[in-house]
Amino acid sequence: MRFIKNDITRGIRNIEGDDYQSRYMPTDIEIKKFFTAIAQYSNTPQLDKLTFAFMLYLGFRSCELAKLHGHREFHQVSK
After folding, report:
1. In a structure prediction context, what are the per-residue pLDDT tens digits for the chain, which is 79 residues long?
2. In a domain, 75, yes or no
3. pTM of the predicted structure, to 2 decimals
4. CB neighbours of residue 34 within 10 Å
5. How far is Cα 63 from Cα 68, in angstroms, rounded to an integer?
6. Among residues 35, 78, 75, 33, which one has the least CA distance to residue 55?
């Protein structure tokens, strides 16, 4: 099961700079296990899956998601 079907970074050169730090990217298996753990242990699995999917697929940052959590429409997912 591939969560990210196409490598959108193919052909893009690495960032060059003294202060750049490469970051670990989880494998598809690790992502699947993560979402399975959410489904198993979360009190609001739909909302939590949506939150992390926003980060994974859309690049949302935690501060942007915190702002969304204040909106009533966002919380209707968990009902």
Report:
1. 456 667 777 788 877 777 777 778 889 999 999 999 999 999 989 989 988 999 988 889 988 888 887 766 665 655 5
2. yes
3. 0.60
4. 15
5. 9
6. 35
The three-state (H, E, C) secondary structure of 14-42, written as one string = CCCCCCCCCCCCCCHHHHHHHHHHHHHHC
Number of structural domains found in the chain: 1
What is the domain extent for residue 73?
Answer: 43-79
Rounded to 5 degrees, what angle do the CA atoms 38, 39, 45 make?
Answer: 80
Which tokens is 47 given?
């909302």
